[in-house]
Amino acid sequence: MARAIRSVIVIFLTAVWAATALADVKTFDELERRQGAVGSYKALVIGIDTYADSVIEGSPAAVTGARHVADALKGRAGFDVKLLINEEAGRASVMREFRGLARGMGINDSVLIYFSGSSHTDKASRKAWWLPSDARSDDAATWIADHEIQDAVNTMKARDVLILSDAALGDTMFGATHRLASRRDGDYYVGLFNKRSRWAMISGNTLPVAENDGISVFARGVASALSSKGPCLTTMEMFSGMKKELRASGVLPPRCRSIRNTGDQGGEFVFLLAAPAAPAPVVVKTPRVKPKPKPATAPVAVVKLVPPKPKRKPLEGQLKVSANINGAELYIDGKKQGTTPVGDITLKPGTHEVSLSKEGYLAWNGSVDIQRGKARSLTATLTKEPPKKGRLYVKVKPKGASVRLNGESFKSGETVSAGTHTVKVSSPLFKPGQAKVVVAPGKDAWVEVFLKPRSSFKGEWGRFVYIKPGSFTMGSPSSEPRRKGDEESHPVTLTQGFFMQDKEVTLAQWQAFVDDSGYKSEAETAGGAFALEDYIWTQSREYSWKNPGFPQGDDHPVTGLTCADIEAYLKWINGRSRNAYRLPTEAEWEYAARAGGTSAFSSGECLGSVDANVDANASWGGCPAGTASSGTMPVGSFEPNAWGLYDMHGNVAEWCGDWYGRYPRKAVKNPKGAPSGTNRVVRGGGWATYAYNARCAKREASDPSRGCSEVGMRLVVEVPR
């Protein structure tokens, strides 16, 4: 039969669709010869050693390791391999390949995905990500989350899916495992092959660890396993051999388990290995034997035989020197002879002093006796120099920040070699920081690296501006025109900074949530939203976020949502991000709206049609009248306040996270509103609001189940401590 095609990908994927029957292999002969139900083998191999974001550290062994594995898969394993290297391995390209594997592989095929690059793990949330080549260090939405890998595997129809990751991932995707059987005959391999499998083997290091030849230890272990003698190789057989090799190399051993919630049925990925190429036959030519000459008839001549002169023995001897490590400097009798291995050194007879040295190893000294005309070999064993170590403690803020010591992942309290070290600390919402520390032999050393939040970050849900902690007077003074009785002024201190969305949530951002989740808003499933009809707020089933009663575009703020709708939106966002998104508290909203000022509006004591989208068709407090508005406008249509926030007055009023209640009569820190209530706080005024009702201090109480075409939202992100 024609040779079955196999493909390799830096991830092994095998998905299960129960609706289609899986063809079984009946005998080991069918399996070995790839007959009957044995499908094609495809691999996706990803190698990234260079990142567009210079903050992300790559490993020089990543690409060489990926190519080494790809060659091994194409060899005896017979895979059809797709190789993505560096800029070819952006997030969009990798996800597109995942979808192609889900569509293109049949139920009797096998998929392997191999990833060799950098990863990030969050110990607090136990989440983990692969970092594609275009990943941004400050935006987790550009990474590939472990649950996305898990989802991709779950969509694949293939018989077997195997993910090999030369970069650490969390343990949340792991399911059950089983031991390697002591007896492994033909029935054993057939049994494993006939059951669907979804497995992952994950390195214990966050990026590939190189050996002397530049190939990662993990990649060499995979290639070595694929060169085994037998016709079959299972996942656990590969894992067993790699675990021993990696431990012997001094790196963290890998983990190997099934991938949970992907349809694994207890099988294993079975590699079918072609027989090694047989050596070429040796052809021996037999010389023809000439017939013996006949005796001569002439008289026999007398020949005097002179014995040959003995060959003169050479005056010198030869020496070959090797060592357990290459590159050691060789000195004989104090004269440098090169670096190991060194061969065919000509020496005079006698005893010679030999020494070998290499940085990081103890010097080797010995002697060798050379005899005239003879060759000798000398093999030396150099031992590593005992490290002089101390213990290093690193205190970081925020908690859970990634710590790297001299480029390697580091945990506070570990022992390190004596000397000067560079500690680098990073966290997605913070500016990276670093410090140098000197560790003395046998001593403890301490260093603190406290990160400062970034001034802003931009992600899938827009741009967020950092709002520093501080104090302000919340409420309005008694002299402010049109103030209400629930605006009592009182001192407020916010001790923790936060990131606030610089614009209101748009229709396009809400639409992305609906498209992905199929969510129906309460206005669509109940009595509809409220819209303005002839200056009267009227509830109707025809009104919702889709139809607020006026024309709108994707860049307009979304309206007509209840608090329950917003909670569903936040749950969806937080499930896709490592950040904690929520609505602002009422105090956070007013603090950000004032932007350090004390006037009625962030723009001063008056607000007109040139300042915000409000109903300015009435004069008040000495402010000139403007024009009325008929609906929302694109977000960011007016100048931002001093802190870079748009539309804090007008366009749409904004839900806050607080229950509406009376203000406290004393100074407070980090207030979160009333402990309970019937109405939620709404702030900022909207397009149909008179200007004086869009003041910084103006409060509105609204039924949380009431969606209105004048009310929207903006989000904040908590800053880890």
From TrEMBL:
Domain named PEGA: residues: 317-385, 390-453
Gene3D superfamilies (UniProt xref): 3.40.50.1460, paralog of FGE (formylglycine-generating enzyme)
Cleaved signal peptide residues: 1-23
Glycoprotein is among the record's keywords: no
Top-level taxon of origin: Bacteria
Limits of the Sulfatase-modifying factor enzyme-like domain: 464-716
Pfam families given in the database record: FGE-sulfatase (PF03781), PEGA (PF08308)
Gene Ontology molecular function, alphabetical: carbohydrate binding; formylglycine-generating oxidase activity
Keywords: Lectin, Signal
InterPro entries, alphabetized: CTDL_fold, PEGA, Sulfatase_Mod_Factor_Kinase, SUMF_dom, SUMF_sf
Protein name: C-type lectin fold
